[in-house]
Amino acid sequence: xxxxxxxxxxxxxxxxxxxxxxxxxxxxxxxxxxxxxxxxxxxxxxxxxxxxxxxxxxxxxxxxxxxxxxxxxxxxxxxxxxxxxxxxxxxxxxxxxxxxxxxxxxxxxxxxxxxxxxxxxxxxxxxxxxxxxxxxxxxxxxxxxxxxxxxxxxxxxxxxxxxxxxxxxxxxxxxxxxxxxxxxxxxxxxxxxxxxxxxxxxxxxxxxxxxxxxxxxxxxxxxxxxxxxxxxxxxxxxxxxxxxxxxxxxxxxxxxxxxxxxxxxxxxxxxxxxxxxxxxxxxxxxxxxxxxxxxxxxxxxxxxxxxxxxxxxxxxxxxxxxxxxxxxxxxxxxxxxxxxxxxxxxxxxxxxxxxxxxxxxxxxxxxxxxxxxxxxxxxxxxxxxxxxxxxxxxxxxxxxxxxxxxxxxxxxxxxxx
Length: 417
Hints:
Blueprint: H1 6-15, H2 20-31, H3 39-44, H4 55-58, H5 73-76, H6 80-89, E1 97-101, E2 111-113, H7 116-126, E3 131-135, E4 145-151, E5 156-159, E6 164-166, H8 167-175, E7 181-185, H9 194-197, E8 203-211, E9 214-224, E10 240-244, E11 251-258, E12 261-264, H10 283-293, E13 302-310, E14 313-320, H11 327-330, H12 340-376, H13 394-397, E15 403-404, E16 410-411
Parallel strand pairs: 1-2
Antiparallel strand pairs: 1-7, 3-4, 3-7, 4-5, 5-6, 8-9, 8-13, 9-10, 10-11, 11-12, 13-14, 15-16
């Protein structure tokens, strides 16, 4: 998360009537409470505002360091070709992949680019422009390239902003990502979105909880690109985030990212389209698409889908297998995630983990007693038979994994489901 201007935010807190002592006590309480809200998150969410938040509402917010529920899907879906292949196999809408840059991996129906010469040949001869390039596993649109066309006279690609990049220089950039890169056909925005955001594709972060009761869409926020930003990620200064009512599709609080925080915004800075009372187009189709995909990932408990509304309808662009940065699900709302069904699931997961840990300890104690009994009897029966495999302890099975990087700036400590 980009740094905040603490002095400015403390001044805002004071203007809201919050005393310094009360603020410090509240920051400490929330940081060491179940939500693990950091001081940066406290100010970003404006949790000092007692008019907006009740004490109970403040305790529903979670930070990036809050415990999460462990899932092997988090690493699997971070690999973009693997996720795309899974979703395509389920006949779900995904971006069209034209080529894969990798030393040995392939993707059905796409060119396999093994060497810099393969890359040059694809960009000069085979690519169907415009295309969009992105690394296999980067977050926050790092390393992406929106390529409009190829300039044969300059032997260079032309980016959407008109900048030309020499092929050798572009190949060197891809090498920084270990030669793991995708080229996809550039998506076009749905006609109903063009008057609002211009001719740029934007995505909606749709947060799904998958538990024993099934899949439910808990939160949604529209990531809106603005100014010179080619990507919609909210960490980029100038971009906009708007909360969406998951039932009606109506926009709620809308905020613009500034260099050191956020500020309310009522209209798009380029199109002058007003956000107030706006309903996201084709919302029922957006929601149905996500809820059709979510049950196909059993054990992926927190799903942070990025869904684009294109001229072909909703498209599943990416997925955060641990839900992603909770800022996306909380910033534009008056309560956090730690309530209701989400809170119950987290609490039950903690209980199951504690129970497994206790069972593991009991199992180890039992084995120790058996072996001591054998030794005290003179070793007549010998130790436990080596042909009987030891059961891995619950402690080993439920190890902690830390979140790193952003839209994965950090990883939350897992709680095994």
